[in-house]
Amino acid sequence: MLRFKSLGSGSSGNATLVEASRGDITSRVLIDCGLSMAQLRSQLAPMDLDLEDIHALFVTHEHSDHVGHAKQFGLKTGRPIFASQGTQLAIQVHAWGLREEQIQCASDSEVIQIGQLQLSPFTVPHDAREPLQLSLSDGELKLGLVTDLGHVSSHVVRALQNCHALILECNHDEHMLRLSKYPSFLKARISGPLGHLSNKDSAQLLRSVLNGNLKTVVAAHLSEKNNTPELATKALYEVLDPQGPQLIVADPNEGTDWITVH
Ligand SMILES: [Zn+2]
Ligand SMILES: [Zn+2]
């Protein structure tokens, strides 16, 4: 069984828990650690889980909403942290005081096996040193995860084919961003080719990866200033059949419930 739960999604901090189980073996990976250990513990406690029940951390890139508390996670749990060479350099992970074997390199197209879970990272266009996003699989079902990318590259579209579930960035509504009080350099960064996807871009990406097995779409990483769940939902329903995949919007602070991939 493959299931996942967003623990928080957006500029205030990202973390997604993915779990695969077969027989009595259960493997759990945390994707990004933008939440404090106290926040993580309070999210995990109702599920009867603690930090040590997470077997590895995958850091997608060095922005603080993704890596802000990764050091504490590594020091507290002793679990391996996977990140690209560029991300490792950007966060200076070798100065964190971790054991050398905790620091693991992730690269585009190189599958990482963590117990029952296979992680397949791929490069995305985003203004970080070597950003990766990824898909995860239990060998049968596939979950795609893209939360930070500036435009839809053909490489990303290829990597997200045949997903059964998809966590998809819907960062901003173009009109709201244009009218917002953000300084113009920031607006240019967000809407630029290495920034974040607008609802319209996300819908375009969704259109290119739609398939008959896609059962769940989670709209994620919504800007609290420049987007609303209603606008994101409306944009994605331009592409989705209302009788088709279920659409869930991740709450910036609460994330989502457990979602089983099927
Ligand atoms: Zn980012
Ligand atoms: Zn982000």
Structural notes for this entry:
- This protein is of the alpha/beta class.
- It has one domain: Ribonuclease Z/Hydroxyacylglutathione hydrolase-like (Metallo-beta-lactamase, Chain A, 4-Layer Sandwich).
- The chain is built from nine helices and 14 strands.
- The protein has helices spanning about 35-45, 65, 70-75, 85-90, 155-160, 175-180, 185-190, 200-210, 230-235; strands spanning about 1-10, 15-20, 25-30, 55-60, 80-85, 105, 110-115, 115-125, 130-135, 140-145, 165-170, 215-220, 245-250, 260.
- The strands form two sheets. A seven-stranded mixed sheet has the order 6-5-4-3-2-1-14. Strands 7-8-9-10-11-12-13 form a seven-stranded mixed sheet.
- A hairpin with a 6-residue loop joins strand 1 (about 1-10) and strand 2 (about 15-20).
- Helix 8 packs parallel to helix 9 (about 230-235).
- The mean pLDDT is about 95.
- It binds zinc ion (2 copies).
- One zinc ion binds near residues 63, 65, 148 and 221.
Secondary structure layout:
Elements: E1 2-8, E2 15-22, E3 25-31, H1 37-44, E4 56-58, H2 64-67, H3 70-77, E5 81-83, H4 85-91, E6 103-105, E7 112-114, E8 117-123, E9 132-137, E10 142-146, H5 154-159, E11 165-169, H6 174-179, H7 184-191, H8 199-209, E12 216-220, H9 229-237, E13 246-249, E14 259-261
Parallel strand pairs: 3-4, 4-5, 5-6, 10-11, 11-12, 12-13
Antiparallel strand pairs: 1-2, 1-14, 2-3, 7-8, 8-9, 9-10
Bound molecules: zinc ion (2 copies).
Strand content: 25-35%
What summary fits the major beta sheet?
A: 7 strands, mixed
Total beta strands: 14
Total individual domains? 1
Named once each, the bound ligands are:
zinc ion
Q: Tell me the strand order in the biggest sheet.
A: 6-5-4-3-2-1-14
- Element order: H for helix, E for strand: EEEHEHHEHEEEEEHEHHHEHEE
Estimated radius of gyration:
17 Å
Q: Count of helices?
A: 9
Shape: globular
Which superfamily, in CATH terms, is the homologous superfamily? Answer: Ribonuclease Z/Hydroxyacylglutathione hydrolase-like
Level of helix content? 25-40%
